[in-house]
Amino acid sequence: MSLNLNREIAAIVPSASMVTMAKAKRLKAVDAEIVDLAGGEPDFDTPRKICDELFRQINAGYTHYTVGNGLPELREKIAAKLRAENGCAGYDADSVIVTPGGKYAIYAAVRALVNPGDEVMYLTPGWVSYPAIAQAAAAVSVAVPLDPDEGYRITEETLEEKVTSKTRLLIVNYPNNPTGRVLTRPEAEILRGFVLRHPDVVLLSDEMYEKILFDGNENVSPASYADIAPRVVTVNGFSKCVAMTGWRIGYMAASPEIVKVAAKLFQHTISCTSGFIQKAAAVAFECGEEIEAMRRAYQERRDFFVGGLNAVPGVHCEMPEGAFYAWTKFDLPGMDSNQGGEYILNNAKVVGVPGVSYGEEKGCWMRFSFATDDAQLRRAVANVARMMKGLRK
Ligand SMILES: Cc1ncc(COP(=O)(O)O)c(C=O)c1O
């Protein structure tokens, strides 16, 4: 019996990071020596205050549907944060939809903005789900490769090379998964110029890692430019910066026209984001100290881990400016990143996500997460050093 399935969705490749995470868990269950650096989530617990609020809400019976795009008090807090911390003066509570995870916010925004056959540009190396989400909307995803030899800097030429009359959306993500790069002011100006030159294009800025910044780097939110703000969608959430991956809560902020259309999809597919989770997430705005403590820990781990990898001949990793990933190039002759990933797993017992999953076709790049404890990171560096030494003998 042959079924008629949705062609676009059936053709989507499974999320490489989810597949690798599942594989790492399977391997670790039978071999405790495996170092799992594949996952994209903090190893820290969610701050206590947030968990306490969740239990308080559930015990008080706050377990019913909520109405609208999110609890008004949470949307107000999010909008106030976007105005005060990100300089996005145009946002108010009505600009915000609270979604089950940032991923759904991206999906809702893409579905609200593109029609079948439209083109969605996204920068590579880039997060694995952007092309898949575009594909689910029957849009055409267009990778915009940034050059490692230029420090993955955005240039006007690279953007102009890929834009066509069908382009409706450009997706950017800073701090970046997987490279750890942040958006500089000059690059933000390039994005601004691009949006101004192309009136049919909307910019989606995924700022999911915005508080995980190192060495005094700052996050630039494109929606802080008033002249392009109506054509910018800002996506953020609580997963990475507040260690709330499993809670599934995030948000999008956009102009009233975009929110109106995205809200229709949201209402009919999700109804509402869980009320007790929203109440608890509101407490995240009082967790500045906990968030900063995690950031400091990531910076210490980054220094140790990236420093350690760079001391190994044949291994190179640019110092990440934000997020918690080491985007690492291996000199493994004749191997692409899939083969290299297998080699590293078999010979160093370290699991990372192959670079090709992020659109990096050339060379053997791997993404390792350093959101894990020091002992695991030490073991990973020692094993990689031993493996590379063996290879060079
Ligand atoms: C760049 C980026 N954006 C969005 C997300 C989705 O986050 P959430 O867990 O809130 O859905 C992730 C998670 O891996 C991510 O890395």
Write the layout of secondary structure elements.
Elements: H1 7-10, H2 16-30, E1 35-36, H3 48-59, H4 72-84, E2 96-99, H5 102-113, E3 119-124, H6 129-136, E4 140-145, H7 156-162, E5 167-173, H8 185-197, E6 202-206, E7 232-237, E8 250-253, H9 256-269, H10 275-282, H11 288-310, E9 315-317, E10 325-330, H12 337-348, E11 350-351, E12 353-354, E13 364-369, H13 374-392
Parallel strand pairs: 1-11, 3-4, 3-5, 5-6, 6-7
Antiparallel strand pairs: 2-8, 7-8, 9-10, 10-13, 12-13
The structure holds pyridoxal-5'-phosphate.
Pyridoxal-5'-phosphate binds next to helix 5.
Give a summary of the structure in a few sentences.
This protein is α/β, with parallel strands linked by helices and 393 residues long. 41% of the residues lie in helices and 15% in strands.
Query: What distance separates the N and C termini?
Result: 56 Å
Task: Give the full name of the CATH homologous superfamily of the largest domain.
Answer: Type I PLP-dependent aspartate aminotransferase-like (Major domain)
Radius of gyration: 21 Å
- Our count of domains comes out at 2
Number of strands: 13
Order of strands across the main sheet: 2-8-7-6-5-3-4
For the biggest sheet, the summary is:
7 strands, mixed
CATH topology of the largest domain: Aspartate Aminotransferase, domain 2
How much helix, percentage-wise, in residues?
40-55%
Question: What proportion of the residues form beta strands (DSSP E)?
Answer: 15-25%
Q: Supply the helix-strand structural class.
A: alpha/beta
